[in-house]
Amino acid sequence: MTSSSRVVVVGAGITGLVAAYELKKQGFDTTLLEAADRVGGKLNTTDFAGMRVDESADAFLARVPWAIELAEELGIRDELVSPAAKSAYIFSYGQLRPIPQPMVLGVPLDFDTLEASGVLSPEGVARARLDAERTENLVVGDESIGSIIRRRLGDEVLERLVDPLLGGINAGDCDNLSMDASAAQLAHAARQDPSFVNELTDLRRRNPPNPDAPVFYAHPDGMGRFVDELADRLGDTIVTGTAVTALESADGAWRLLTSSGIFDADVVILATPARITAPLVADQSRVAAAELRSITYSSVALLTLAYDRDEIGHPLDGSGFLVPKPEQQVITACSWASTKWKHLGATGHAILRVSVGHINNDRAVHLDDDDLLAEVRADLERIMGVTADPTEVRISRWIESFAQYTPGHLSRVATIDDALADDAPGIFVAGASYRGVGIPACIDQAHQAVRSASRFTA
């Protein structure tokens, strides 16, 4: 890419912000278009109970480098914090039980500890133990997480351990989530040994985890700090309130028709959800548009509740809890945020962040505020015994916000990339719809998109 190349990035979520930042840093003529009146996309931090509290993701994985490297680049690496609470619970068979350790992405590695936890029935534990005796390694292409876990470890391990974790991350259903795309570590293990437990145990033996190493990082001012820092550096590169309505080919380049006028570009990076990207490329590549439309989304709501700590009753002795689908009424997960993060507990409030909704049931997401709050409070009483009135409530709805990586997803994304390269050269896609939903994965995809754009115009 030459410094005279014009690049337009569409979508100012974390992917688009990082892509535009990298392009501008390298000296290219860069414009970042965002339809909304604010940047950050699904990352949003606002004032709540006298603190800055996230309305969506509140942390990122520490075991991959991309978000940590970005924090270093932005000068905020030393400000990052890790969770103060490392244990968590699962609501199974009518009560909160500690999540049995060790485990890898919900797969238990110690059956005696699993049995003692009570998370599974005796029959479920007995079925899981059979995994260690397996001799046939049957993995058929890109299977769903559910199909492999059910076959190897039984229904209860899937429904009461793996799905609450991995399904919860995606607000999805593990019976219809690609193992290759959603749980690469488990996919690798499944192909290495007929026994998940034997392979994952051997892997831990060869590469023992550091018990003192953080699993997650966050910023005390919320994940919005990353958004603010990037936006400050981008300045007037960002154009908000500008929705792209069409893409047209223009003499070997691209013309973007928007609600605010026309923008010309040699390269376009679409850092928008697949459901928004599909109509933009439909006139250029019917194949890419069809594959983009096939990516479905789930909707969730996140309720943030503040309580007087002395009135909460429950000890809040962990980072929170997950609720397996067989036990769900409305809550899918609850983070005890004021215990999980020391800075949120400093004021004496108890802060709960409650998640509702998933791909198979978004009824509660669409309730009005009063009805949704009433159902959540009733569920908190059932699970935690909390009867106190919250002192403050915030409801954040994220409609069609979680892309579902169904089996074959990575092949689908490769087809999208190939079709665009053939039919619409100079247009690239990146973001949570494609190769990872977490903040680090989106940052990595931004870097990959910039490299692809650079190679295209070199």
Topology:
Elements: E1 6-10, H1 14-25, E2 29-33, E3 45-48, E4 51-54, E5 60-61, H2 66-74, E6 89-92, E7 95-98, E8 103-104, E9 107-108, H3 111-117, H4 122-129, H5 145-153, H6 155-170, H7 179-182, H8 184-192, H9 196-206, E10 216-217, H10 224-234, E11 238-239, E12 244-250, E13 253-258, E14 261-265, E15 267-270, H11 274-281, H12 286-293, E16 297-308, E17 320-322, E18 331-336, H13 337-340, E19 349-356, H14 369-384, E20 392-403, H15 409-423, E21 427-429, H16 439-457
Structure commentary:
- The chain is of the alpha/beta class.
- The protein folds into 3 domains: 6-43 and 225-295 and 405-457, FAD/NAD(P)-binding domain (3-Layer(bba) Sandwich), CATH 3.50.50; 101-206, Orthogonal Bundle (protoporphyrinogen ix oxidase, domain 3); 297-403, Protoporphyrinogen oxidase, mitochondrial, domain 2 (Polyamine Oxidase, Chain A, domain 2, Alpha-Beta Complex).
- Helices cover 36% and strands 22% of the residues.
- The strands form 6 sheets. It has a 7-stranded mixed sheet with strand order 7-6-17-18-19-16-20. A 5-stranded parallel sheet has the order 11-2-1-15-21.
- Strand 6 and strand 7 (95-98) form a beta hairpin.
- It is globular.
Task: Sum up the structure in keywords.
16 helices; single chain; 3 domains; seven-stranded mixed sheet; 21 strands; protoporphyrinogen ix oxidase, domain 3; FAD/NAD(P)-binding domain; alpha/beta; Polyamine Oxidase, Chain A, domain 2; five-stranded parallel sheet; 458 residues
